[in-house]
């Protein structure tokens, strides 16, 4: 049973080989006309045909394959151009961000120069609090009569200034 299948497969492969030879003769091509590299490619093609169980050599398949490869090539070129444009956009965005970082670094340096250390700020604050407390204490010790009118004093000063 197994032997019968092998014999049928051998017979069909011989028939296929004869078919391909006939196809080559129709195109006026002899196997001796091919270089070793071309024969290696043909051998690989035959292996692919045998592997894929395709036995009909049709030029339309080759044209479809060619146009498919050509389409892939054009799509790859288009994708490459799009990616190049995207890369340029990203590079310009990086340059803008670098400029912004430089401006922020200059601002940070200027702010550090103007920054007052914590110890100095605490000393100033304690001095201001002490001055305020001193003024409040002086105000408490100052005895202002209840009938004192500041507006009349201001009017008298203004009249003296006018003279």
What is the topological layout?
Layout: H1 2-26, H2 36-52, H3 59-114, H4 118-141, H5 150-162
Feature tags:
mainly alpha, 5 helices
How would you describe this structure to a colleague?
The chain is mainly α. Among the domains are: 2-57, no CATH class; 79-128. 83% of the residues lie in helices and 0% in strands. The protein has 5 helices and no strands. The chain is rod-shaped and about 135 Å long.
Q: How do you describe this structure in short?
A:
83% of the residues lie in helices and 0% in strands.
Secondary-structure-derived class: mainly alpha
Assembly of the depicted chains: single chain
Catalogue the unreliable spans.
Answer: none
Q: Give the CA-CA distance, first to last residue.
A: 143 Å
What number is the mean pLDDT? 83
Number of helical regions: 5
Q: Helical proportion? A: over 70%
| Residues in β-strands, percent | under 5%
Order of helices and strands: HHHHH
**Radius of gyration computed on alpha carbons:** 50 Å
Gross morphology: rod-shaped
Largest sheet: none
Q: What's the β-strand tally?
A: 0
